[in-house]
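ugh ok fine here u go
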Amino acid sequence: MLSDNIRRSPDGTLFFAGQSVIALAKRHGTPLYLMDEDRVRSNCRMYLDAFRRNFGDGALPLYAGKAASFKQMYRIMASEGMGVEAVSIGEIYTALSAGYPVERVYFHGDGKTEADVRFAMEVGVGCFVVDNENELRLVNAEALRRGRRQKVLLRITPGIDPHTYEAINTGTVDVKFGVPLETGQAFAFVQEALLLPGLEVAGLHCHVGSQVFDEDVFERTLDIMVGFMSSLYRTLGFVTRELDVGGGYGVRYVEQDKQADIPGRIAAVAAHLKQLCADAGLPLPFFLMEPGRSIVADAGMTVYTVSTVKHIPGFKRYAIVDGGMADNPRYCLYRAQYTVLNADREAADTAVFDLAGRCCESGDIIQPAVTLAKDTAPGDRIAVCTTGAYNYSMSSNYNRLGRPPVVMLRGGESYTAVLRESVEDICALDL
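structure:
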């Protein structure tokens, strides 16, 4: 199977996190987001252990909340000792509502408004990751108004191509994020920040993209960033106390995807950073990384019920389910791949189907050309694997469809973390 938390029983029934997918679908209904809490915690501990072994106390993984943001997730992150990064006041408020220590939140985003800055400073967000010159002035002004200095990291664009989906590439010179090194703007950005009295410039941030498998991406990034750190020290006397290299380790969505050796990669990154800093005569900075997908993706599975099967002889078969692009827009957005399985049986006689959704769009395809039981019929349950990241968090009410619930699986039991949206919930804000 794609992941070791997925298996089939002798009769062919699909099990996820040790529990029958069919039984869970009957108990909770479909569409249904399942989340393996034990796997989430195991992934957190993998990062924390690798950071401790390779950096000592001088490092912290920050969970990228945009991958899956709801209150129970932040409770898990708090109990596991993870840091958190947020990209909106909605994510900050969710973390705060869950009791997450807000001083451990790093606030990202390339378009923060004055209201965002005020809210984040009011609740005591620990660090702002400042994306641009306008934000520098916003944060400085609000800090001075409050008579304080706000800790910040400055987001630099290193000009790295991670060879990933174009839509999730954030490191090249012309992306919308950060301030580019290549044009000389980054140096002026840091220089201005150091002169602003309301800011405590702790260090630098960069992020080169998501779903990264190429083994040298972070090393290439560090080559550039440590070179810049050295230049800042020589010319401005600025010592980079913190360095955040973003996130992005890839996960397996289909069998042909590689399995990333994350602990091994972190060890290689740590060794490379230590050598670069030693060669440059710089102290080793407090190291930060922002895993999101690799924390929650393989902890997720979405379960649907087939509503209609259409066979167009000589062309294709469709299996149309009770969800679609409203609960998983990733194929529509950037042709993301998924592994799709019949949940009630492992069939020997198979056929190729397009797994389609119920939304009123011809592009509402969850995954094309998937192999399912040839006799797949209305009422059958279909499982889409590795949906823990960017499914619930990107879901919508398109066609006025309610979002599915999030059901957590832990130690052989299940509990609801996010309720299913009703039609009343959808209309709750309408006047």
